[in-house]
Amino acid sequence: MAGNDSALTVFYDGACPLCRREIGWYRRRRNDGRIDWLDVSQCADEALPQGLDRPTLLARFHVALPDGRVVSGPPAFAALWLRYPGLRWAGWLARIPPLPLLLEGGYRLFLRFRPRLQRLAGCRETCE
Question: Alpha-carbon distance 36 to 17, whole Å?
């Protein structure tokens, strides 16, 4: 897996225009910590975190924390937001109960519509 002890590793689907657009937005902004970006659609299997396969990583947003734990969905977004001075407030807010449960419900609803959004964004059959 890419990274070092202080890095956050973001796993994303580089084959999907919708995902690329979102990751591009983050990459263009200043952050206060090291962030490694790993395109799961093109990386070698050896670069994937132990215990997680490519379809699992492509199904939800995942981030490897500096301590090696991998989180997905809203906790992954919160971890990423905490690295950006302008978004830090959202990262802290997303961790206050009951918001994690509400955000998870909203994220699962979004995932149901994600294939349609990907098609609208120009994603081909490689985006699942």
Answer: 19
| Number of structural domains the chain divides into | 1
Domain assignment present for 3:
no
Model confidence pLDDT, tens digit, residues 49-93: 999 999 999 999 999 999 999 999 999 999 999 999 999 999 999
Domain-embedded: residue 126: no
Residue 80 token pair = 């990423």
Query: Do the domain assignments include residue 128?
Result: no
Using left for φ > 0, alpha for ψ between -120 and 50, and beta otherwise, residue 51 falls in left
Helix 99-120 with 17-27: angle, nearest 10 deg: 120
Domain coverage including residue 86: 8-120
> Rounded to 5 degrees, what are φ and ψ at 7?
-90, 150
Which residues partner with 10 through β-bridges?
Answer: 37, 63
Kindly list the distances between the CA atom of residue 9 and the CA atoms of 62, 67, 96, 120, in Å, as whole numbers in the listed order. 8, 11, 23, 28
Which class for 55: exposed (0-12), middle (13-18), buried (19 or more C-beta within 10 A)? exposed
pTM, to two decimals: 0.87
